[in-house]
Amino acid sequence: MARFDLSDAEWVIIAPLLPNKPRGVPRTDDRRVLNGIFYILRTGSPWRDLPGRYGPYTTVYNRFNRWAKAGVWISVFRALSERSPESMAFIDSSIIRAHQHAAGGKKGARITPSVSLAGD
């Protein structure tokens, strides 16, 4: 088990929410696929760079897309937030670097409206 893989408690909550339509070919383990999806989302790696322990990257990618279209992710997030409301407090700490000259503009330039008001 890798460092950020699903715990048994998390898996108990998520497992019943996943669609399971058995076909002729045996399915790749859903827990392993979920761990692969979370690995990609956490690291930002390309799908092709998914480590082999999570299964074929095409399987992981296809299942991610199918579950997104079926609304599975919404039900998973809803179930997790209902079970642990304090864990859903997110703080966005995104940082976007600007070019060193991005702050430079004409000093003392006036900002004038492009349309003058009728009352002026």
Overall geometry comes to: extended
Structural class designation: mainly alpha
Rg calc: 23 Å
Low-confidence stretches: none
Q: How much β-strand is present in the residues?
A: under 5%
Give the total of beta strands: 0
Helix share, percent: 25-40%
Average pLDDT rating: 79
How is the main sheet built? none
Determine the N-to-C terminus distance.
Answer: 71 Å
Taken in chain order, the helices and strands follow as: HHHH
Count of individual helical segments = 4
Word description of this protein:
With about 120 residues, the protein is mostly helical. About 40% of the residues lie in helices and about 0% in strands. It has helices at about 10-15, 30-45, 55-70, 70-85. Helix 2 (about 30-45) packs across helix 3. The longest helix has 14 residues, at about 30-45.
Q: Topology, pairings included?
A:
Layout: H1 8-14, H2 30-43, H3 57-70, H4 72-83
Helix pairs in contact: 2-3
Summarize this structure briefly.
The protein has 120 residues and is mainly alpha-helical. The protein contains 4 helices and no strands. Helix content is 39%, strand content 0%.
Provide tags for this entry.
120 residues; mainly alpha; 4 helices
